[in-house]
Design brief:
- This protein is mainly alpha-helical and about 100 residues long.
- The protein has one domain.
- About 65% of the residues lie in helices and about 0% in strands.
- Keywords: Signal.
Length: about 100
């Protein structure tokens, strides 16, 4: 009850700044015929029909699985591993910190 009493003046204050409707509708829009309404049954039934995005998602998921398998079975890249590179960078950072300015 108290919420409604608080929200009512707030809502009224917001409504005071709405633009007027009379000047915003052009004469061509007023002369245009009313839009044709369609039944909602077919539209709601089409909502559950499979769409292209669902098939694309299935294809991309399968492709990602194939790529993960290919990467897991691939030979390691030549050169230092990430652990060795990280250790080298930490060693170089320590040397730079210890260097006199």
């Amino acid at each position: 009850m108290y919420r409604a009493l608080f929200l009512l003046p707030l809502l009224a204050a917001c409504a005071a700044e709405l633009p007027s409707v009379e000047g915003s509708i052009s004469e061509a829009a007023r002369a245009a015929p009313a839009p044709r309404l369609i039944p909602t049954g077919p539209v709601l039934a089409a909502r559950d029909a499979p769409v292209r995005a669902q098939s694309a998602e299935v294809e991309l998921t399968a492709r990602a699985a194939r790529l993960r398998q290919a990467v897991a079975g691939a030979a390691p890249l030549p050169g230092p591993t990430l652990e060795a590179r990280g250790a080298d960078l930490r060693r170089r950072a320590d040397a730079l910190r210890a260097a006199p300015l």
